[in-house]
Every structure is written in C-alpha cells, then in structure tokens.
C-alpha cells in the first residue's frame, strides 16, 4: 500500500447497522470514507457528521448498487472528493426470508439484483479502478455454513459472493490487491432483528458459545484489520465472524 496519499474507502450500505460502524471505524483509522446510502439521506449525513466531529473525512453519496451505474457513481465520487479509491467494502445487502417452496420470483429477483448483482459490479469496478495495493472486503454470511430453513435464496446469494471472492483474489494478486469476505453470524442490527420474536432471539443467543449476539463494532474491527497493513497476508479468504456459533 502506498503511504504517499490518504487512503480512501467506499463502504456500501453505510448509513446504518454494520456499514455505519465500518465507516466510523475506518475514518478513525485515518481513512477518508465514501458513505453510500440508497434511501436514507439523513442517516448517511449523520454518519458523515459524526466522522467529521471526530476529526475524520467523509462524504455521503446516494447510489443504488443494483443499478448498472451505481458502483460507477461511487468510484467517481471517491475520485472527485478524495482523489481515488484504495478500499472497497461491499456491505450493502437485503434479506427476505421464506421457505423455498413459498418464495416468489419477485423476491428472488430482488435479492439477486442487490446481493449478487451489486457485489459483482462492485468487484468489477474495484478491479478496474482500485489503486495498486488496495483491499476489497465483501460480505457473506455464516448462514452459508449453517443452512437454516427459510434462508435458501439469501444463502445462495452469499455463496456466490464467496465464489467471486476466491477467484478475484487470484486475478488481482499481481497488483497487490487483496480480496476477502467476512461472514458474520447473528448481529444485533435492524436487518437481523426485524420480525424476530424475543423467544427466537433467545434461542439464537443460546446457540452461541459466547452467549450473546454480535455487535456491529465486532464486525467493523475485523474489516479494519483486513483493510489495514497487518491484514495484507490474508487473501482469498472467507472469515466466519460469529462468536463460534459454527
């Protein structure tokens, strides 16, 4: 990695949850951050304000990663505001659960368009425009290994992310760019908690040897490691960050 410029990160889905924690942590580490959001401008602006108040640099950029030009807009914004991009964090995703037999085509298409299409376009744009020595960190999920009922489509989209991660790491290695994926277990976010009863949450917690749900900062710390100088020798890996649930 070059030490002649401020490093710059794009974090998709960074207005809330895990993405917001990642944006704040990377900024704390001295990295300028493009805070991507799809709909909630106020939440993204709040993250930028928090980063600025702590002495960091960030800008909020609206872009739909499922659209053909969404990732292009984010890389353009990074160049216009900070001079280029060194780190891409493919965090944004959607999760709609149902048994496979009950899933409709619209649900399937939505999750594929964001969770596979958005990540693919991020990986492609990153391969084209990331500075040498950069980092790509995408998000899978521990459900790929757990295979719980109702997660069929979601797990399939995350398995696709893992496959692309392994391959792109080999393609970008000659440029010193590492490509990894983080696969969280249950994390206490709005996305995870939506629709779950207190009893179900307690059952999920009981499966974890550490006895709690993950927190967004738990995952942000791992992303910061992979994005930083100490993470360079980790490449082409999927890291199950789940407290030992599997």
Low-confidence stretches: none
Question: Could you tell me the mean pLDDT?
Answer: 95
**Shape descriptor:** globular
**CATH topology-level fold name:** Rossmann fold
Question: Total domains, how many?
Answer: 1
Main β sheet profile: 7 strands, parallel
Terminal CA distance: 34 Å
Using the 3D structure, state the CATH architecture.
Answer: 3-Layer(aba) Sandwich
**DSSP helical segment count:** 9
| Rg, alpha carbons | 17 Å
Spatially, the strands of the biggest sheet line up as 3-2-1-4-5-6-7
Helix share bin: 40-55%
SSE order? EHEHEHEHEHHEHHHE
* The CATH H-level homologous superfamily: NAD(P)-binding Rossmann-like Domain
Total beta strands: 7
Query: What is the CATH class?
Result: Alpha Beta
- Counting helices, strands and paired strands, the structural category is alpha/beta
Question: Into which percentage range does the β-strand content fall?
Answer: 5-15%
């Amino acid at each position: 990695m070059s030490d002649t410029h401020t490093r710059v990160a794009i974090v998709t889905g960074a207005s809330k949850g895990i993405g917001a924690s990642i944006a704040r942590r990377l900024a704390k580490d001295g990295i300028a951050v493009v805070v991507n959001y799809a709909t909630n401008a106020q939440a993204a602006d709040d993250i930028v304000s928090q980063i600025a108040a702590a002495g960091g640099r960030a800008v909020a950029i609206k872009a739909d990663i499922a659209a053909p030009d969404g990732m292009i807009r984010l890389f353009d914004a990074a160049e216009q505001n900070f001079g280029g991009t060194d780190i891409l964090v493919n965090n944004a995703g959607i999760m709609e659960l149902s048994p496979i037999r009950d899933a409709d085509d619209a649900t399937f298409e939505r999750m594929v368009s964001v969770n596979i299409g958005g990540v693919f376009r991020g990986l492609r744009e990153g391969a084209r425009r990331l500075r040498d020595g950069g980092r790509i960190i995408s998000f899978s999920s521990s459900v790929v290994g757990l295979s719980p009922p109702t997660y069929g489509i979601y797990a399939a989209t995350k398995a696709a992310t893992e496959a692309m991660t392994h391959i792109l790491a080999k393609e970008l290695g000659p440029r010193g760019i590492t490509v990894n994926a983080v696969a969280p277990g249950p994390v206490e976010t709005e996305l995870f908690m939506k629709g779950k009863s207190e009893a179900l949450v307690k059952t999920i917690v009981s499966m974890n040897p550490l006895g709690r749900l993950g927190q967004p900062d738990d995952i942000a710390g791992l992303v910061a490691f992979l994005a930083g100088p100490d993470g360079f020798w980790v490449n082409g890996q999927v890291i199950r960050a789940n407290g030992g649930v599997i």
